[in-house]
Structures are given as structure tokens and as C-alpha cells.
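Study this chain:
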Amino acid sequence: MTASASGRREAFRIRQSSIFFRASKSICALLLICASATALGQIGLAGRSSEDWTVLTVATDGSWGTATEPVLNRAIASAIARCRAMSHQWLGCGAYQVSVQGGWALGVRCGNETIIAKGATFAEATESADQRERELRRLYRPDLKACQQLVVVAPDGTARSAEAQGIASGSGFER
């Protein structure tokens, strides 16, 4: 056996061991990630609510969509799809959205401005929308047209539109 042949064998062994070492590191990392994901799925995240996610989205033309799902991304996708079904525009749904767990959401239109607010109670959501309206008038749009509620979404995900329930004059929900 020559010196060059033994050198090649040694280089081959080093290459094999480094490939094995890299592969075993990757496998260990993958196992650690899987174990962590399984543990989190079984015990739940600390502070995580068991309430479903409710998403409200309002398009620039005033069309809106809402959805309530256990998973946030599904709720967003469903709300956008429902908004697109109502809208006469392809773009715009999802431009303004709010997500809440176990709370209230409402959509308001002031001329061509959209205000979306949320709160743990209907009163908090209404106050949040009123505060945003005052801020818009004071800082950006002193000539802002009168505001009208488009939709109110209750914690259980039920939505009432202004046309169907006369929200602008009285919501039908207790404050």
C-alpha cells in the first residue's frame, strides 16, 4: 500500500465522518423541533385563550366580511372570501381588518374613511371607534363626513349589518 492510497483512504474517512456528523446534527435538531411542537400542542401555550378567533375585514367600498374559526389564519382567509363575495371590486378586502378572541368588533364608515375597532365589551369597541374618529378629525380630516356603523360582530361571531338591523340609530346590542 502506497502513501498516496492511505492518504486517500484517510481523506475518505474524514469526509464520511463529517457528513455523518452533519446529518446527525440535522436529525437531532429535527427531533427537538418535533418534540417541542408536540409538547406545546398537548399542554397549550401559557396565557392562550380557548376562545375562537373572530376576524372582521372591511373593503374600501364598504363591503365587509367576518369569520370565526379556532385558527387565526383560517378566520382571516374566510373573512376575506366573504368580503369578496359582497364586494364589486377584486382588490380591497383584507386591506383593513381586526382580529379578536372573545370580544366585539365593529366597522364604521365616515365618508370614504374606514374605521375598524375591537374591544372586550361592546362599550370598549364603541369607545375605540369614537376615539379613532376624533383623532381623524383633529389630525387629518377636519371635514370628515358623518360616521355610520356598517357592522357589529358579537363575541360569538354573529354579525349584524347596519341595513338589516338599523345599527346607525341603535345597535340592538346592550352596551
Notes: The longest strand covers residues 104-110. Strands lie at 53-58, 64-69, 96-101, 104-110, 113-119, 147-153, 159-161.
